[in-house]
């Protein structure tokens, strides 16, 4: 996999060139077929049908706190959340599933607005959805891995997730939006590095983001790794 590389002090950032220079864009609600074994674009479940894993206990507490602030008119399963909580287990490791998808996913017929109730809450509050949603949700379909080296350096690789990254169920999914052989989600009007700019700026910081973007979209391909 070819990557562009930006060295920033003790951290070396690598971004998958083919993905971030492509015109991939999230097409949730615009043809996304979901991640189940049967293609279901009309259900608008996107990749929310399995719920969201919490990164750690702190994230579980944070999502609980955000959920408690959501306007019931914008959160379809508010009553369910009040009755049984927003997690599927007592350790709060993953969000609950209601009617085949994440408890936070408002369905297409919900009068308060379809889509992630956490995302809608952030928009209502004029805040970034990054601060309201589980990490796994705002990072998808990016996959981030970090390696600490013996010399004190840290390497961070950011690439698209693939079917293999979903584990045993990945191969049977009817569709996955980053598949190279399926053009459905490669329809953005801007490169993926721009479509995902808020998320990447949050991860990399503005200066590293701008440097990585210039290497992805510029003519100079000299600084890359294979
Ligand atoms: S990230 Fe991919 S699977 Fe998830 S909602 Fe967007 S297009 Fe669909």
What is this structure, in a nutshell?
It contains 8 helices and 9 strands.
Q: What's the average pLDDT? A: 95
Instruction: Tell me the strand order in the biggest sheet.
Output: 7-8-2-1-9
Helix content: 25-40%
Number of helices: 8
Structural class: alpha+beta
Q: State the low-pLDDT regions, or none.
A: none
- How big is the Rg? 18 Å
The hetero molecules present are:
iron/sulfur cluster
- The helix/strand order is EEHHHEEEEHHEEHHHE
Overall 3D shape? globular
When the domains are counted, the total is 2
Largest sheet: 5 strands, mixed
Please provide the count of β strands. Answer: 9
Distance between the termini: 6 Å
Provide a descriptive summary of the structure in words:
By secondary structure, the chain is of the alpha+beta class. It has 2 domains: 1-39 and 140-226, no CATH class; 48-133, no CATH class. The chain has helices at 17-20, 57-69, 78-84, 117-124, 135-139, 192-195, 197-204, 206-217, and strands at 3-8, 11-16, 97-98, 101-102, 105-106, 115-116, 142-148, 154-160, 224-225. The strands form 3 sheets. Strands 7-8-2-1-9 form a 5-stranded mixed β-sheet. Strand 5 (105-106) and strand 6 (115-116) form a beta hairpin. The model has no long low-confidence stretch (mean pLDDT 95). The site of iron/sulfur cluster has 11 residues, from loops.
């Amino acid at each position: 996999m070819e990557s562009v590389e930006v060295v920033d002090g003790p951290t070396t950032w690598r971004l998958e060139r083919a993905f971030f220079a492509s015109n991939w864009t999230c097409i949730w609600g615009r043809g996304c077929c979901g991640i189940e074994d049967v293609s279901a674009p009309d259900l608008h479940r996107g990749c929310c049908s399995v719920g969201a894993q919490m990164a750690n206990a702190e994230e579980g507490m944070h999502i609980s706190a955000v959920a408690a602030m959501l306007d019931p008119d914008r959160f379809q399963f508010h009553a369910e959340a009040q009755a049984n909580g927003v997690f599927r287990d007592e350790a709060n490791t993953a969000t609950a599933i209601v009617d085949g998808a994440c408890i936070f996913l408002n369905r297409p017929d919900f009068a308060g607005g379809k889509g992630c109730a956490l995302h809608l809450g952030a928009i209502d509050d004029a805040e970034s959805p990054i601060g309201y949603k589980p990490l796994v949700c705002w990072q998808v379909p990016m996959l981030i891995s970090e390696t600490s080296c013996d010399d004190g350096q840290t390497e961070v690789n950011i690439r698209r997730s693939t079917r293999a990254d979903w584990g045993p169920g990945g191969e049977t999914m009817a569709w996955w939006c980053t598949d190279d052989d399926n053009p459905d989600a490669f329809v953005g009007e801007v490169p993926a590095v721009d479509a995902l700019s808020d998320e990447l700026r949050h991860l990399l910081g503005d200066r590293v983001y701008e440097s990585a973007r210039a290497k992805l979209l510029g003519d100079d391909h000299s600084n890359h790794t294979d």
